[in-house]
């Protein structure tokens, strides 16, 4: 526990205080004093109302976007400032954004139990065994990747309509028997807990401040996203421009994604490689570059359907469209290796130590890749898959077109 003297002296001019639905009654004496002595108190309108009896200084309700308030917080550096936040400010809260411009040694954070902690306690679920997700300000499709049979999910809701919309999504994915628990205004006098199955969801008049608990029950034929690379080709809408399942699995292995990295997928096509890259870890990012508008739209639909609507798609012709994009940690060139300047622009943008993977099917592209291999090194491999198929009255192997893959790491 932080001693009161340690947080009220020295350079710690900013206090980030978690506050629950029980208001000032749930605050420690230290938290109350920090709010009461602050020259500026910043928070949501609800938080400011909850702490109103303590506030003596200027109040500032978060604008939209909340980043518009950051300049005033910065100008108040060295004065006593308090920021009010829901529960634990550093668990899907405003703490992450504040820490980008205020060093940790200049603020103190006093968290309260988060909505996740309160919901897990109400449900009797061990928090370490639960999948945690926020739908606040994010597309509903973000939850799709977590819809695994038997999974327990806690989701921060965006508004009163989110539980019903989520029930509809579950039913559409043939998970209508899943149980949804809506936990409203937890920790305060208006707390309410109600349950319904997704297919017969009938909960009404839901408080906007709610958290959703889901026990996933998948019916036969339910759409489930496996946790390994190499998704079935049938999961993607495509026009034939698709890195096939087995080649895609090897491609992901060659790209070797690490948490927090950014991928460029040049020649996005159906988006399969970028989508599977994003599915490997929630911190990964991807930018898909596609010249054709129909393919760019198709890739966007695939990304939403498979639970990664955050895929950023840039429509345009490489290499010109690459200028100004965030520098990547990895690059996949699924199309465009025959276009002059594409490799050179990609290689220049790639961060030192980054990996570039290019797949070639045609002899002309293979020749160019072989030339780059001689000049830049790396690894060159040939992949081919054969599938059993009917040949008259018997079964034989029907080979697919071979793929030459070049993998190289930038010094």
Please provide a brief summary of the model.
This protein has 411 residues and is of the alpha/beta class.
Model description:
With about 400 residues, the chain is of the alpha/beta class. It has twelve helices and 19 strands. It has helices spanning about 5, 30-35, 45-50, 70-75, 95-100, 115-125, 160-170, 245-255, 270-280, 295-305, 340-350, 365-375; strands at about 15-20, 40-45, 60, 80-85, 105-110, 130-135, 150-155, 180-185, 190-195, 210-215, 260-265, 285-290, 310-315, 330-335, 355-360, 380-385, 385-390, 395-400, 405-410. Strands 13-12-11-14-15-19-16 form a seven-stranded mixed beta sheet, with helices on both faces. A five-stranded parallel beta sheet has the order 3-2-4-1-5. The model is unreliable at about 1-10 (pLDDT under 50).
| Euclidean distance between termini CA atoms | 47 Å
The strand line-up of the biggest sheet is 13-12-11-14-15-19-16
* Number of E-type strands: 19
Q: Give the helix/strand class.
A: alpha/beta
Rounded to the nearest angstrom, the radius of gyration is: 26 Å
Q: State the helical fraction.
A: 10-25%
- In round numbers, the mean pLDDT is 94
Show unreliable segments. 1-9
Q: Mind summarizing the main beta sheet?
A: 7 strands, mixed
Shape estimate = globular
How large is the share of residues in beta strands?
Answer: 15-25%
Count of helical stretches:
12
């Amino acid at each position: 526990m932080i001693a009161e003297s340690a947080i009220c002296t020295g350079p710690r001019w900013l206090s980030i205080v978690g506050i629950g639905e029980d208001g000032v009654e749930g605050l420690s004496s230290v938290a109350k004093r920090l709010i009461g002595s602050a020259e500026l108190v910043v928070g949501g309108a609800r938080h400011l109302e909850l702490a109103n009896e303590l506030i003596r200084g200027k109040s500032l309700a978060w604008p939209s976007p909340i980043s518009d308030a950051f300049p005033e917080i910065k100008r108040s550096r060295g004065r006593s400032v308090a920021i009010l936040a829901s529960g634990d400010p550093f668990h899907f809260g405003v703490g992450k954004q504040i820490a980008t411009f205020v060093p940790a040694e200049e603020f103190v954070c006093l968290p309260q139990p988060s909505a996740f902690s309160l919901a897990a306690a109400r449900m009797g679920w061990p928090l370490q065994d639960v999948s945690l997700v926020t739908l606040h300000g994010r597309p509903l499709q973000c939850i799709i990747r977590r819809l695994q049979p038997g999974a327990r999910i806690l989701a921060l809701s965006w508004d009163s309509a989110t539980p019903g919309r989520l029930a509809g999504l579950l039913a559409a994915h043939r998970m209508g028997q899943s149980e949804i628990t809506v936990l409203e205004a937890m920790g305060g006098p208006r707390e309410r807990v109600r349950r319904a199955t997704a297919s017969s969801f009938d909960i009404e008049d839901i408080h906007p401040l709610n958290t959703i608990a889901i026990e996933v029950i998948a019916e036969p034929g339910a759409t489930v996203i496996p946790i390994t690379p190499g998704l079935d080709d049938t999961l993607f809408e495509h026009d034939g421009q698709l890195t096939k399942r087995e080649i895609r699995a090897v491609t992901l292995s060659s790209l070797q994604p690490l948490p927090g990295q950014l991928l460029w997928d040049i020649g996005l096509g159906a988006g399969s490689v970028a989508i599977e890259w994003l599915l490997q870890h929630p911190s990964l990012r991807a930018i898909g570059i596609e010249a054709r508008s129909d393919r760019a739209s198709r890739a966007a639909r695939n990304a939403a359907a498979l639970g990664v609507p955050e895929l950023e798609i840039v429509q345009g012709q490489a290499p010109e469209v690459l200028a100004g994009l965030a520098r990547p940690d990895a690059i996949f060139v699924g199309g465009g290796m025959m276009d002059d300047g594409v490799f050179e622009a990609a290689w220049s943008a790639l961060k030192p130590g980054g990996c570039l993977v290019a797949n070639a099917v045609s002899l002309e592209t293979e020749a160019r890749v072989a030339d780059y291999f001689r000049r830049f090194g790396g690894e060159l491999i040939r992949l081919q898959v054969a599938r059993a198929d009917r040949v008259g009255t018997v079964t034989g192997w029907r080979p697919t077109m071979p793929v030459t893959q070049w993998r190289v790491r930038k010094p």
